[in-house]
Amino acid sequence: MSDIRTLITDHIRTIAEAKRLGATIPADHDRLVGNWNALVAHELRAVDKLSHIATQGDLTKDDFDAPYREALVDYNANLDSRAQYGVTNTVATHLYPAMLEAYGTVAVANYQDAAKAYNEAAGRLADALNKCDPDADTAEVLAQSKAAQSAWLSIDMLTSEVDQAARAVQFMARLAGVENTDDDATAISLLTDTTGAHRRRVWDGWAATGRGGKWRALIDAGAKLKASDLATLTPYALPEPMQVEHVTTLSANKVTTTRTTSYVDPEDEKARASAKAAARA
């Protein structure tokens, strides 16, 4: 288990990354981080400060007077590093939950902003994919409309935009309290609406590569690229195993038999039922 210092350090780095991704950070949180930094700086003992000063520039006796007196006070009071470490840790146990609480006031709003940006980026990619064949060669593309050519040229850039926006959604979701946002089952639910989609094809699509990446494959599988409502988020279940059916048929001569093997995907019927239900809704 991480100690309290590691938790605070990791949290501060995480919030800095969230800010880089566009998150709003409360002033109260910035204040608490500043307090923590000041507290840690205070651990630099007077004797350490004196040692640092001794290596800087051309010094006189007067330059050493004040820091030397401080070092003597520290030494006589026995303020060793272990004691200071313990004091700082005790204060940290109060600062850390305060930092979490401060960011918690904006966590959901930051997720919603990231989700909106993702939905918009995904919409632009879906629109481009609908206008062209990403796998078409150059000669084929040149024979198509200007709109199709423009869409074809934009696929890689739009895919990258969705990749980045998806990472921001996962990051903000984690800060809003969602666990395992990098887990595939959670990520699929977080980034797609799979209503009516074929579960096995969605999972296959999640691992797809090529132009348009997983996003194109997910759309082809019937999923919509849309960030989820955190209140209703549940990990996306794996598909049921394929079922194997063996059929033995007696030949016309009534002597020999023929055995055939077929594979049935139980997700086929589920997808059909789900699509019908969605159409009725």
Low-confidence region ranges: none
Order of helices and strands: HHHHHHHHHEHHEEEH
Radius of gyration: 30 Å
DSSP summary, beta strand count: 4
Distance between the termini: 48 Å
Mean pLDDT: 87
Spatial order of the strands forming the largest sheet: 1-2
Structural notes for this entry:
Helix 6 runs antiparallel to helix 8. The strands form two sheets. The protein has a two-stranded antiparallel ribbon. It has twelve helices and four strands; from the N terminus they run H-H-H-H-H-H-H-H-H-E-H-H-E-E-E-H. By secondary structure, the chain is mainly alpha-helical.
Write a concise keyword list for the protein shown above.
elongated; mainly alpha; 65% helix; two-stranded antiparallel sheet; 12 helices; 281 residues; 4 strands
Short description:
With 281 residues, the protein is mainly alpha-helical.
Ordered list of secondary-structure elements with their pairings:
Blueprint: H1 4-20, H2 27-42, H3 46-54, H4 61-77, H5 81-104, H6 107-131, H7 138-142, H8 146-175, H9 184-191, E1 192-193, H10 199-206, H11 213-220, E2 224-225, E3 243-250, E4 257-264, H12 266-280
Antiparallel strand pairs: 1-2, 3-4
Helix pairs in contact: 1-5, 2-5, 3-4, 6-8, 10-11
